Amino acid sequence: MRLFFFLLLYFIQVNVLKAQTEISGQIKDNKNKPIPGASVTVKDSYDGGVADSTGRFKFITTEKGQKLLVVTAIGYKGFEQEINLDAPLQPFSFTMKEEPDELKAVVISAGTFEASDRKRAAAVLTSLDVVTTASANGDVTGALKTLPGAQQVGESEGLFVRGGAAAETKIFIDGTLVNKFFFQAGPNIAGYGRFNPFLFKGTVFSTGGYSALYGQALSSAVILESIDLPEQTSASLGLTVLSATAGYQQLNKKKTASWGINYDYTNLGLAFGLVKQKQDYFTVPAFHNIEGNFRIKTSASGMVKYYGNFSNNHLGFTTPSIDAPNYLDKFALKNTYQYHNLSWRERLGTYWRLAAGVSYTNNKDNINGALQDASKKDVTVNGLEFKNFAFDKRGHYVNTKVVFDRRLPGLSAIRFGSEYNFSDDPSVYTDYTNASYKTSLKQHTTALFAESDIYVTNNVAAKVGTRLEHSSYLDKTNIAPRLSLAYKLGKESQASLAYGIFYQNPETQYLPAVSPLDFSKATHYIAQYQKTTSLQVFRVEGFYKKYEQLLKTGTLYNREGQALSSNGFGDAKGFELFWRDKKTVKNFDYWVSYSYLDTKRDYLNFPFAITPNFAAKHTASLVMKKFVLPIKTGFNLSYNYASSRPYYNIVNSGGSYKFSDRGEVPDYHNVSFSLNYVPTVGKKDARSFVVYVLSVNNILNLKQTYGYQYSYDGVRKEAIVPPSRMFVFIGAFFSFGIDRTQDAINANL
Amino acid sequence: MKKLLFSLTVLAGLSLAVKAQDDKYTNAMIPKVIAIDTTHSTPELLTLSAAFERIADAEKNKWQPYYYAALAQVNAAYMMGMQKPDASKTDPMADKAEALLNKADALNPNNSEIYVVKKMIATLRMMADPMSRYMTYGPQAEQALQTAAKLNPENPRVYLLQGQDKFFTPEQFGGSKTEAKILFEKAGQKFETFKPSGNIDPNWGRTTLQYFMAQLPK
User: Fold this and answer.
1) pTM of the predicted protein model
2) Same domain flag for A467 and A551
């Protein structure tokens, strides 16, 4: 009996083994396209199949009874379905939904250019592009000037975006505001950015319509993201015609923390000896720059980062005075600067994320101006006494920001937080009689903001935000709504729209005002179409920007440029094109930018609404890059063009402002060339990394005129030109990786 | 006595059942393990990877099926990338392979073979966009391979991959067919003495080696 039972069991088992069920069907996405490679599995068994190029699958299973069928595919939401294997099955027809995917999803890109190594629709440049653009001179903002929207203004630092003045662009590092981003170089000379572009892994250049997380910028926000932990412990050394630099960066064994220090000494004496400058320097510009950083990984996704910068520089020069023939204008500047930025980002639970940051800036400028006679002695000339002065400006700035981010299903998210900004700008002005005038201006600006990313599908997204700001100085509060939409038209193309209101406090240099002021206000409307492949980007964008409550200035108690009212206004409209192509010619990469701008404004001392002197109607750039492998050398060429800009001499006559002269400067052309020789490239086991750089700015030695300046009495007029026409830079940079492979292996064992 | 007999029978039955389960696993694995060396098309490799993944998910405590699922996924991506590098296609495959390999790594840490595949994943990511990625993934690949060599200096696949790197890298970037040949020969010697721990443990690479040896200038 028992034997019979066993035999029965045996036969049943064999029969069960032999009983086979065929499972077949087709798998498609919600657009009815087959999903080749999708996998179908009978759960907890070895049986399953994979969809072929038509999405069809077929397999045989020996499993029996109620089972789960698991359907998965890369990029799609997997699912399970109950099946009964005791009966024959009809072919299945499965539809899979796309997984929300940051790489595939539409990106709100209206008004945004991104330079980073992330694969996103807005990322039109890589972080390496910033340093290999010929005309950029290793300056982040220099590279941004080759993108549409930015003007080719060479006589002062800063980014002039879409009809906006430089002060309308704010720069942020790891979320917090950077004050005094640029070195000051003297009247009509543009200073460089203080920060090394290699500090940043990502740059977002917004030419308008930016997020509610940022404020106090009427036109543009440049958002810089500093690098996380370095790849390895390394020491670096650089030697150029301008500077000597040395640095050390240590990464701990566990790769959870790093610290670094960098010292840089710049002296333009040698370069100025070789390339004749327009200015006659009695104190050659010299800079000491010390940077320190630490970065600590606090959890799998949490990190604390600190970056600090101390710098000290001085310069002094004379130029023939336009106000008094045969006399010289003296300008001397001493600057000490420190900047500290501490940021923390952390994931709090599954859905919440926190980003917090604080920055502190302390800036001190001692400016000394005088009229000098031919023997270079300070003299006071009747009627021009104002030319002899000392101006001590200090600035203390604190900016803090906290952002909470709550992830919602899919890619949607909601974030909110607050920002607080404190500025204190005390100054002492000493005139030729040694009488001192002190001013002090403390301002507190507090903001609350909330914004939500709403992804309806991978193809439709919206960003809705609001920012509330209060200024203690103005004693006013504003509400700034922001809205952007993006719609994916095809696999590679998308359209976006952006709208927003932006407020900014009046510029400190014109304060205090005699009567109550208001925030300056800009309203942006942007529409964009973009088509992107991994090798080509095409973009066209149109915009309209309306300015209200711009600052108007006047002369009061003999003080020029004092804030009078917020009755200024203006607008800017235009369109921009961008085309980047790495495909057509192999190993050759180029991009073309074109901007058309039509803008007028009535602000500061303008008699009525006019095109400001920093706005050219047509601006274009062509940037070319080619890396020639056999000689390990990169060749970079860029051409920047701007059509004629207007210039004005505005004078006060009987209490009102009038033009005493106006005109247009010639078109601007600049061709720059740079060459990077990287002998160590591709050597995998090389312990050092070496780059030799040669760059020539304005290689064709073209005459560039930025505008005109006038003598005090308006009789004489002089072109504002660069300090030298052509500029040549030569440098060598070495980085020595201190090999820790052995340590890494030991740590793994 | 009857009881004892019954117990013995049950015991024998049970052990048979366990053996049957083991046999089922081994029998399912062996042909697929052999197929690793002979499958060269993307769809076939993806099918193979899915088959390994099914076994892995059904067994859950065996590292080999996860390892092979990752390896087949990487090979599928290589085949695809060789025709036309496209990061948007190969990156998700690299992610998938990495997720599978991490499971193998958790079940069997410090295994030289797993570091070999780690190296292959890093190289796969780098190849999708070498100009902007070699600074990140180059050292990662190098380090994984060095760890693999350290963990088992007798692993022939370490030298096979080193040889491939030398073979494919342009000469101005430090590649060399002569050095590749030396490394391939070393891999050949290691293959002669290499004994896998079991009949489903990694033992692939001989056909690849033959292919490269045939490509080398005589």
Assistant:
1) 0.81
2) yes
Residues A365/A401, Cβ–Cβ less than 8 Å: no
Task: State how far residue A630 is from chain B, nearest Cα, in angstroms.
Answer: 6
Domains located in chain B, CATH noted: 28-215 (1.25.40.10)
Report pLDDT digits (tens) over A715-737. Answer: 889 999 888 888 888 888 888 87
User: Are the Cβ atoms of A46 and B54 closer than 8 angstroms?
Assistant: yes
CB contact under 8 A, A126 and B55: no
Å between A207 CA and nearest CA of chain B: 26
Q: Which residues pair with A544 in a beta bridge?
A: A525, A573
Residue A80 lies in domain = 20-96
Nearest to B169 among A74, A232, A682 (CB): A682
Please indicate whether, in this complex, the C-beta atoms of A74 and B51 are within 8 angstroms of each other: no
CATH number at residue A718: 2.40.170.20
| ipTM over cut 0.90 | no
Classify residue A8: in a domain, yes or no: no
pLDDT digits (tens, 9 = 90+) for A585-611: 877 889 999 999 999 999 999 999 999
Across the interface, whether the CB atoms of A748 and B147 are under 8 A apart is answered yes
Contacting B with CB below 8 Å, chain A residues are: 36-37, 39, 41, 44-50, 52-53, 74-75, 103, 117, 119, 126, 128, 231-232, 534, 627, 629-630, 632, 681-686, 741, 744-745, 748-749
